[in-house]
Amino acid sequence: MKEYINSDFLANQLRMIRTVNRRAVLIVEGDTDRRFFERFIDPESCYVKSAFDREHAVGLIQKLNADSIRGVLAVVDADFGRITGSLETDLNLVYCDGHDLEIMLIKSNAFASVVNEHCSDEKLKKFLSSRNPPMEFAGLLATSCLPLGVMLLVSLRNQLDLTFDELSFGDFVDKKTLEFSKEKLIKSVMDKSIRHDSELAKQILLEITTEISKQPNIWEMSRGHDCMELLSFALNGTIGTKKSETDDRKLTKVTRESLEREFRLAFSEVDFSRTELFPAICDWEAANKDAYKILGDNTRAVQMAVSIANRSMITPPHPSK
Asked: Which residues, other chains included, contact 261 with Cβ-Cβ below 8 Å and sequence gap of 6+?
């Protein structure tokens, strides 16, 4: 069914729905995103619809804009858009913080909640203190994943059509340090892509090294799925301690998919209120003169409480005598 769905199909659906339903519509990339954002919207004034991928979501907004259909907003991943300066500019399009939704989750308080469920404080502190310089864990994951993010960008920029799906991190990640071997990473991707070109491999290595030397924003360059996969790799070996419920002698395998599910559930309304995405949605509502409402009242109340709490923590200066 999905292969027959495109932005034209989705636009026609929304046009028909609009004849009987005047609620605001929040377009997202996929069904998992739909379930995530449904936690923060007002269901009486808004509903969330999956476009099945980013391209369809952006295309859908463009078609609805052309037809002057109001009250539809899309939330999509930035991907490499902020790095390359190629983000689509549209009043009805807003972006997750960082590279993608998963990065936004990793940057939140949900990170500590999930990690603490799976690893020993002692092991984690020992691991982080061995880094030079010491680094907080979320930032370490994103920094370690830089070579993979850069290689994907190089592939896209040069139209290399390399395959990055289902890579085995054990083939190129050091279990003790969680650092990537650029050479082994390149070999792994090129083997997966059935590309055996030593000159191309050398060129990719040069481009990765050059790009990383520019110290790019780790949250924009590294993909959230890769950081989750690296966290899974770490919890299954480097720092993990969680035991199996059926056999205490065995460790429960932590998958990327299970981690992403845990992060989505741990991400609270407080976390959402602290994102850059939250005010972007509020600005969209204001631009529509509040004729279309997306965010739920509880989400707004939490944001207001957080804002008041933050202001109360700022000590005013003593008046001069």
From this structure: none
CA distances 150 to 56, 93, 145, 153, 175, Å, are: 25, 25, 9, 5, 21
Which helix H or strand E contains 76, and what residues bound it?
A: strand 72-76
| C-alpha separations of 96 from 75, 88, 175 in Å | 7, 13, 31
**How far is the first Cα of the chain from the last one, in angstroms, to the nearest whole number?**
74
Residue 253 has a CB neighbour count (10 Å cut-off) of 12
Host H or E run for residue 185: helix 182-192
Residue 318 and residue 194: Cα distance in Å, rounded? 68
Residue found under tokens 């549209």? 90
Number of residues in the chain: 321
Query: What is the Cα–Cα distance from 49 to 21, expressed in whole angstroms?
Result: 13
Strand partners, 240: 119
Distance CA 236, CA 230 (A): 10
Contacts of 47 (CB under 8 A, 6+ apart): 21, 23, 24, 25, 26, 41
Using CA atoms in the order 26, 30, 32, 34, what is the torsion angle rounded to 10 degrees? Answer: 10
CA atoms of 288 and 265, how far apart (whole Å): 30
Residue in the block written with tokens 């190129």: 172
- pLDDT tens for the chain, 321 residues long, are 566 688 999 999 999 988 888 999 999 999 999 999 999 999 999 999 999 999 999 999 999 999 999 999 999 999 999 999 999 999 999 999 999 999 999 999 999 999 999 988 888 998 998 887 778 999 999 999 999 999 999 999 999 999 999 999 999 999 999 999 999 999 999 999 999 999 999 999 999 999 999 999 999 999 999 999 999 999 998 787 755 444 554 557 899 999 999 999 999 999 999 999 999 999 999 999 879 999 999 888 988 888 888 887 765 555 444
Token duo for residue 209: 């090294």
